[in-house]
Amino acid sequence: MSSNAFPLNSMTTAAAKSFHQLPYVSLLRRYIPQPHKKSFRSVTPIHLMTLTREEEEVSEHVTKEEPKIKWADVGYAITEAQKQAISELSPKMSNRCKALMKRIICFSPQHESLPLLLASWVKAMKPRRADWLSILKEMKRVENPLLTKVMEYALLEDSFEANVRDYTKIIHIYGKHNLLDNAENAYHAMKSRGFTCDQVILTVLIDLYSKAGDFIRAKEVFEEIKLLGFSPDKRAYGSMVMAYIRANMLDCAENLIKEMEAQEVYAGKEVYKALLRAYSTIGDSNGAQRVFDAIQFAGIVPDTKLCALLVNAYCVAGESDKARSVLENMRSARLKPCDRCVSLMLSAYENENNLETTLAFLIELEEDGIMIGEEASQVLARWFRRLGVVDKVEEVLREFSDKKVKRNALF
């Protein structure tokens, strides 16, 4: 081997290896542009190291600076109302529950996080289900606006030991506040956790959809109850009847009430009243009378408001004689006609332009000691003003009264 050759054994250092590669590298560098040495050597590694160090510093800062809540002290900047609320906490509450309730009463969303507060309480106090229920009961009693948020958090806590009834309650609360999406999310969350739907929660859903005016979904859930082998109870039937009424399907609502009666299940007074009002508004006197009879069959004693709806149905239908019969039946049952009933009768007589019958009706009311109210007085004033006999009304009333007295004397 030539003496000018470089022995391989002698090329052991890094400098020697670099020198050995220089001829090839120098040739390639003529055709391939190289990055700036300074940039190549420093940017990427230092940048990554800087990010890593920053993340470590942030992590250490979060760990060190995490606030520790002093449960025994709620601070001094609390209002008199908050002090009063704290003083009214139930003496039966445990100390761990009182500690959280004080924080909830004085909670400020601008300075605190409710999830962090609850998480800290769970970590420090190790609550049981009874503690959660005590908190929720007290919040419901004082109508605390954070009740729903606390319930949402509790449902996900192992210590709460959530069950189907807990989801039923929160879905019912959502329904009362017309939060349909929240209610559905809670329902699906319940199913995803493996809880089985029962008749109670399905009934709550029917009521929810009924009040929201979603007839189709209310009907689907109602049918689901039957498919699962359950018999709809009074509340499920009532909610479905209301769904039919809101959808203006009065015949279906009435048929469902008949189905209930066949099973000796009777709707509540408000359900009957809603159906009666629906028939009354459109002047369907036959439908109104059927519902009125069903009310009595269900053992509900009609009051003046129910009677007024029946009177209105006959008046709208132009059947003043039958409306008058309803008033006579009320008087026989010792029910004093309300001002609404009287004004409806007067409006019906006005439409018929039946002044003589109107005056006779007014005299009978006077004899029974029934005073004309504001609404009925407005109807009379409008009618007599149109006839131009306002000044002669009292004179005519006196004449009719005298004739009535003489006629009674003869008999």
UniProtKB/TrEMBL annotation:
Residues 177-287 form the PROP1-like PPR domain. InterPro entries: PPR_rpt, PROP1-like_PPR_dom, TPR-like_helical_dom_sf. PPR repeats lie at residues 163-197, 198-232, 233-267, 268-302, 303-337. PROSITE patterns: PPR. Pfam families: PPR_3 (PF13812), PPR_long (PF17177). It comes from the Eukaryota. NCBIfam families: PPR. This is Pentatricopeptide repeat-containing protein At1g01970 isoform X1. It comes from Ananas comosus.
